[in-house]
Specification:
single chain; about 210 residues; mainly alpha; about 70% helix
Length: about 210
Amino acid sequence: FISCSTFDELRLTVLRRLNYSHELCYIFKSLLNDRNPKLALETIRVLCEHMEEETIRDFLNDSIQRFPIYDSTRYRHLIKMYLLIAHKFLYLFEPICSVVFDNFFKIEFHFPSSLELLSLLIRLNSTYCDERIIRILEDHLKLHSTIMILRSSLDLLLSVIHHTSIPLSKQLLNQLFDVSRYAEDKELQLRLYIVFSFLSDIIADRVEH
């Protein structure tokens, strides 16, 4: 029924009411590439919850090779699925890190989910992260960006500062100061405080040496 019905909300309701068991894994696997992104996202959530690691690994390895770089609607939903996986099985990204970074560096506009995923991947393995990450931050850490974009950008900046030796550009630092002058959101203020604390420690360390 879930695979054949054209009533997407009903399909999603039925999926959520299923009592999952490993015997149903093959059915859930077939829904990972469903036309309805909500259904696909719910499917990966269930598979993560029930520790279906092999199925999730196969999905990751396959989907990253066919990543729709130039289709923002498709990659936005796919990245949401990746983010769910990363919060549960971050290590599964280790073998494909180079491909993920390469794909993400080609994306012109990032959503909060992709910025958050990048910050997690840098913590996992920063080897494949380079100066292109600074350009992403310059494009998104701007005064008129949405609160969610700014929060995720600051999380990404923290990962870059903490886990790489990539130098921050003067443009990025100027944008950071601009954002800090007008930030009213409490979570944003907290992130800014942490970022500036890290930066002051780095500057102090360099002065001492």
